[in-house]
Design goal:
Layout: H1 3-15, H2 22-34, E1 38-44, H3 53-64, E2 68-70, E3 100-104, E4 109-114, E5 117-123, H4 127-147, E6 153-159, E7 164-170, H5 179-182, H6 187-199, E8 204-210, H7 216-226, E9 230-233, H8 245-254, E10 258-262, H9 266-269, H10 281-291, H11 293-298, E11 301-306, E12 323-329, H12 334-345, E13 350-351, H13 356-360, E14 375-376
Parallel strand pairs: 6-9, 8-11, 8-12, 9-10, 10-11
Antiparallel strand pairs: 1-5, 2-3, 3-4, 4-5, 6-7, 13-14
Helix pairs in contact: 1-2, 3-4
Length: 378
């Protein structure tokens, strides 16, 4: 057993330029140590529990299984490449880019814990090792389901002077949304198309527009709650950063197969012919990533929302093959409004068309504009 290979190369596993696909580098490291082909089981999971109960569970399980921790790993952050960090605090998320590395001499298995995944590396043809890795990750999944109920998550792209990073955001989960009750009948087909788009490996663009308070954001919350996709919120003022070489590298490393949400983006998507012949760099970047060369390799999906007329949007966004679907949200029909008001408030009579915001805030007095009575037939 080439123990020195492991000790000498563990740090470079996470600091090498090859980190773009660290699983490939981990397999190389395994081959160097054992002269055997390696395979990997991976469970994608975000370690954001403030009490570190998830990490403590993994550490205890690995120690009970006879695993040894290799502590010679350095931070991957570009501004700290030469700074060694202590991993004794059981926190894989310090600085956002640190990792734990365990190995078992007898089983000949590596286990990596990083800020968004747990990975097991084992001999490709070893059936017993494969079973152990499957059982280990399944036990961890079950632990997470029991002690950490599912939360709806979306991460926001942020940046400082040196690099881009993702910051976790909690949102209100909307799993059991009744699409038939809350939206007009013509939305059912669009909802089916969008959910199918979320499941496939294709890139593209979904446009949701219409007046305020009609349920665009609530629908996005619903999508986040019911799918396992990686949702990322892109602040509007950062759209022009999509052409920054550092942002391109960040997207390749962190956003592959992600769903990127951009809200209230009228100015970003406006027709270039109405912009005094100025190039809208944010729009161009979205076009390239929605179905350009980067889009082909990253499978990026964009969901863009705005309140203005879709006719003001650049026609290049609407062509087939790039646009998956678009929908204009409006007030619920008279029949839908009446049904929802009866269900929500147990009122009688018929109601004129209203937005979802007007319906769900019907009894709230904000001392602004006088509430107009939209009920008839009392």
């Amino acid at each position: 057993m080439k123990e020195n290979v492991l000790r000498d190369n563990a740090t470079s596993l996470f600091t090498s330029n090859s980190y773009g696909d660290y699983t490939y580098y981990a397999q190389r490291l395994y081959a160097l140590q054992y002269d055997k082909l390696a395979s990997i089981f991976q469970y994608n999971y975000s370690f954001e529990d403030e009490g570190n109960s998830d990490v403590i569970y993994l550490f205890n399980a690995l120690q009970n299984a006879g695993f040894e921790q290799v502590n010679s790993i350095e931070s991957r952050d570009d501004i700290r490449l030469s700074e060694s960090v202590s991993l004794s605090d059981n926190c894989p998320c310090r600085y956002g880019e640190n990792y734990h590395f365990f190995w078992n001499r007898e089983k000949q298995i590596y286990v990596f814990i990083e800020y968004r995944a747990v990975s097991c590396v084992y001999e490709l043809q070893n059936v017993e090792s494969k079973k152990w890795c499957e059982s280990f990750l399944n036990n961890f999944k079950n632990f997470c389901k029991i002690f950490h109920p599912k939360k709806s998550k979306i991460k926001c792209i942020s940046c400082d002077d040196s690099h881009y990073y993702l910051k976790g955001m909690d949102i209100k989960p909307v799993e059991n949304m009744d699409i038939d009750l809350l939206y007009n009948d013509d939305f059912a087909v669009v909802d089916e198309n969008v959910r199918s788009f979320m499941k496939n490996d294709k890139n593209g663009l979904v446009i949701l527009h219409g007046e305020q308070g009609t349920g665009k954001t609530s629908y996005i919350r619903h999508l986040i709650s019911i799918t396992d996709k990686h949702f990322v919120y892109l602040p509007l003022d950062m759209a022009s950063h999509l052409s920054d070489p550092r942002m391109i590298t960040f997207i390749c490393d962190k956003l592959a197969d992600a769903v990127i949400v951009i809200e209230d983006c009228e100015q970003l998507l406006v027709d270039r012919s109405d912009s005094y012949n100025c190039v809208n760099t944010g729009l161009v970047n979205i076009l390239n990533m929605a179905d350009g060369l980067l889009g082909d390799s990253l499978n990026l999906k964009f969901i863009c929302t705005f309140n203005s007329d879709v006719r003001k949007i650049d026609k290049a966004l609407l062509r087939k093959g790039r646009l998956v679907d678009k929908y204009e949200f409006g007030k619920l029909s008279k029949e839908k409004t009446t049904t929802l008001m009866h269900k929500q408030y147990h009122l009688k009579g018929d109601f004129e068309p209203m937005t979802l915001a007007e319906i769900f805030n019907y009894n709230i007095e904000n001392h602004g504009k006088n509430k107009e009575r939209k009920c008839v037939g009392f």
